[in-house]
Amino acid sequence: MRTVIINGANGYVASNFINSLLKKQFKVIALVRANKQDPKERMNKVLAYINDEKEINTSNLEVYNYSLLDNNFSMNENVLKSIFTGNVDYFHFAASLKYDEKSVDEIFSTNIEGLENSIKVFLKYAMKGSRFFYIGTAYSCGRFNGLFEEKFYGNKDISEFRNYYEQSKRFAENIVGENIRNNGLNGHIIRLSQVVGNKETGVTKTDYGIFDFAKRVYNLANRYPNEIVRVHVDPDATQNLIPIDTVTGHLTRVVEEKEIPGIMHFVSKNPVRNSFIIDTLNQLAPIQIIPLKTLERKDMNPIERLISVGMSFTESYASTDILFDTRQRDKFLKNTETGPDYKSIAKMMGYFIETLSEKRKKKEHEAALKDGWL
């Protein structure tokens, strides 16, 4: 059984992947940035969180402090030689999720220089037969029209992308490609669409994408209950959502198999309409959201402008309806399910809003205790 090395290990997808691997008794090496806290504590804390504080067997888990941009990750050479012993699968998850122009230096440093350093460490210490997996995004397609295929695309100017995050991920993919062609890297690229909660249970422990939007709507509803608020969202456009349990199942399958395609899209074949997401939110929160395909900032009222400011990232994906090629993935995974149905999304939204409500009640209770009201 291969050892699996994962950097950026305490992130949402990476930690759930580790959780899945440990349940299947794989040996896992987690590389975690200390960030003023012991790396092992950080890893154990996130594993406890995604398991609802239930015990999990971590006897096959080793956690190391690393620094993505430093030589040898600022790790001892003998330790690196040890963890790369034998055939390993190395998953590069580490990434900056920032997207705006003011953060461009951090974005490119983490997402490009960090990847280059990761490949450098892998090529230096990994033994023949080891595999390098870069976790990319399906939205490296940028403002692409047509069928986005499971192949490399050239680097483009920022005008071809919605944000610098997308552009940096495209550039990073091509660095992997260059190392495959020129340096013998046994590399593979997995592009994920928007990862959501568990399709079976509805448990949702991410506030990214549609859940970031849901959180903003919920907070707005509590400040301005029963308001009617217009948002700049095309109701007929779609969101490509893939459940976390589907992603971890696909990734675990990757580890278990010998022959892996060069690039695969882990996306849903059944995108979800924006109108359904908003209708669901309208049922869960005391507010009426009206999606409009065209809505100028100058025509918004103060509350609408408030939510629009908070949607600076989400809004750029509010009119998407992207077609993703999945032929290589389908050949590899065969007849596997790929995405949540509408019932699953409603369950996830309900869980997420209920969690926000419980947190709000807890804060209010703590504030009342502090002020002596209780």
What does this entry look like structurally?
With 374 residues, the protein is of the alpha/beta class. It folds into two domains: 219 residues, Rossmann fold (3-Layer(aba) Sandwich); 120 residues, no CATH class. The protein is 42% helix and 17% strand. The chain is built from eleven helices and 15 strands. Strands 3-2-1-4-5-7-12 form a seven-stranded parallel beta sheet, sandwiched between helices. Strand 1, helix 1 and strand 2 form a beta-alpha-beta unit. 41% of the residues are buried. The model has no long low-confidence stretch (mean pLDDT 94).
Overall tally of domains: 2
Compute the average pLDDT.
94
Which CATH-level-2 architecture of the largest domain? 3-Layer(aba) Sandwich
CATH evolutionary superfamily of the largest domain:
NAD(P)-binding Rossmann-like Domain
Question: Which descriptors would you attach to this protein?
Answer:
374 residues; alpha/beta; Rossmann fold; 17% strand
What's the quick description here?
This protein has helices at about 10-25, 40-50, 75-85, 105-125, 165-185, 210-225, 245-255, 275-285, 300-310, 325-335, 340-370; strands spanning about 5, 25-30, 60-65, 90, 130-135, 145-150, 185-190, 195, 230, 240, 240-245, 265, 270-275, 290, 325. Helix 1 packs across helix 7 (about 245-255) and helix 8 runs parallel beside helix 11 (about 340-370).
